[in-house]
Amino acid sequence: MRLVLLGPPGSGKGTQATRLKDFLKVPHISTGDLLRGEVAAGTELGKQAKAVMDAGNLVSDEILLGMLESRLAQADVANGFILDGYPRNLAQADALGQLLQRIGQPMDAAVQLEVPTELLVERIAGRAKAEGRADDNPESVRKRLQVYEDSTAPVINFYKQQGRLTVVDGVGELDEVTDRLIKALAPAKA
Ligand code: AMP
Description:
Number of domains: 1
Number of strands: 5
Number of helices: 8
GO molecular function: AMP kinase activity; ATP binding
Structural class: alpha/beta
Catalytic activity: AMP + ATP = 2 ADP
Subcellular location: Cytoplasm
CATH topology: Rossmann fold
Family: Belongs to the adenylate kinase family.
Shape: globular
Oligomer: single chain
Bound molecules: adenosine monophosphate
Order of helices and strands: EHEHHHEHEHHEH
């Protein structure tokens, strides 16, 4: 199963992807986690990305594509993946389509986790306390929600117009949302 999980910051993509990977038996690839790994390791890429991430802006398409390309070349991706945090704009959606075609791994499903904005802000505030992410401060959160509206929402429309989008209600208990996702993915998994 090759799944792209879409949704605004705080919609639960990361949490649900972690749960789905056990069910689907494919790795969870989070571009945010990959970038945070680079920052933590103090690499040149991490140094370039840190300030951009902390401000809530998008890291360059070129960096993201290079990072994704090497991740998708690893052996554990042979049976598929859950992609979380990519694509975040139309150029990335286009690049992803081309990359997947090139490696012969076309996408099976694009799923949008839908959560109202008020709830997103509340959830991110909760996560800020629990995890202490540098970009979970109010200013950066506002910026990330704005970037989502401006750059990532068009990606949702792009997949919708192609008839490839499945929308799943992301409000409720974690188990409930996981069950909804599993039901929504059943046709693509079969
Ligand atoms: P996330 O953990 O997915 O919320 O990502 C955290 C931050 O990493 C984002 O706010 C961006 O600065 C950066 N990032 C993650 N994925 C991407 C992407 N596909 N394109 C550009 N920047 C990204």
